[in-house]
C-alpha cells in the first residue's frame, strides 16, 4: 500500500484552494450582487431618477409609481435568472412587463422631435460606475474570503 500525506499546507496553497472552491461555487456572491442591484434600482425609483424627465402635468403619484407594479416587478417578481455553469455563471435582472421597455427607452427621440408627443425615456434598470465598483468589491471580498 502506498500512502501519501501532505501536511502543513502553505498559506499560498490554502489561498489557492480557497479561491478554486469559491470560484467553483459563486452562488453566494451572485446573491449579494442581486440584493445590491435590487436596492440600487429601488433607490432610483425613490429618487425619481436621477435624471428622469419631469411630467408635463401634475398628478398625485410619483414618477413610474402609479401602481408600483413596475418597481415591484423589477425588484421582486420580475425576471431574475441565476445561471451557474462549470465555465460561465451569470445573473440577469429585468422584467417582462410589456410597457417597461417604453418607460426605459422612451417612445421617441426628443432631440430630433422636441414637440412630438410620446413617453420620455426614464431609465430605471441600469448600473453606473459606483455600482460597478461595489459589485467588483463584492466579488473580490468573496473570492479572498
Walkthrough of the structure:
The chain is mostly helical and 145 residues long. The chain has one domain. Helices cover 45% and strands 7% of the residues. The protein has 5 helices and 2 strands, in the order αααββαα. It has a two-stranded antiparallel sheet. A hairpin with a 6-residue loop joins strand 1 and strand 2. Helix 2 packs antiparallel against helix 3 and helix 2 packs antiparallel against helix 5. The two termini are 38 Å apart. The relative contact order is 0.16. The model has no long low-confidence stretch (mean pLDDT 82).
What's the gist of this structure?
By secondary structure, the chain is mostly helical. The protein is about 45% helix and about 5% strand.
Q: Output the strand order for the largest sheet.
A: 1-2
Largest sheet: 2 strands, antiparallel
- Total of helices: 5
CA-CA gap between termini: 38 Å
Main structural class: mainly alpha
Number of strands: 2
Average predicted confidence as pLDDT: 82
Overall 3D geometry?
A: elongated
Give Rg in angstroms: 22 Å
